[in-house]
Amino acid sequence: CPTGVLPTTDVIHILKYGAKREDVIESDHVKSIYLPNQWLRQTNIVDTPGTNAILQTHQQITEHFIPRSDYILFVTSVDRPFSESERLFLVRIHEWRKKVLIILNKIDQIQQTADKEKIVNYVQTNARQVLDDTTVPIFPISALK
């Protein structure tokens, strides 16, 4: 799905198993993308418009869909790890009683191992407090690589 520093996704994209087809319109705010990936036979991956954008409709679309999800892959980045708006959204996710895995993106931008560890610990400490869960998994990744 598209990504960028400016808002790029204004609808929910659902990745499903099937012959490759993109942007099959399901409703006003939902499009499906079909891919022949065997893993998608047993699950769907949903990309929401997200939060923390100036467009309030993006937040509303996301908040409407998240309660129907089984598991949340919450993506944050090292350039602004665990912002206040992310904290507030994680509070909502906790209220909805959803399981969460946190993906810390852009880890390749941090050169020093000690700095990487500080950022991971910062996100982990704050996420554990908000989600009241000592086992919140955090995966530092580089989507670019």
UniProtKB/TrEMBL annotation:
Coiled coil: none annotated. InterPro entries: Dynamin_N, P-loop_NTPase, TRAFAC_Dynamin-like_GTPase. It holds the Pfam family Dynamin_N. Gene3D superfamilies: P-loop containing nucleotide triphosphate hydrolases (3.40.50.300). Residues 10-106 form the Dynamin N-terminal domain. This is Dynamin N-terminal domain-containing protein.
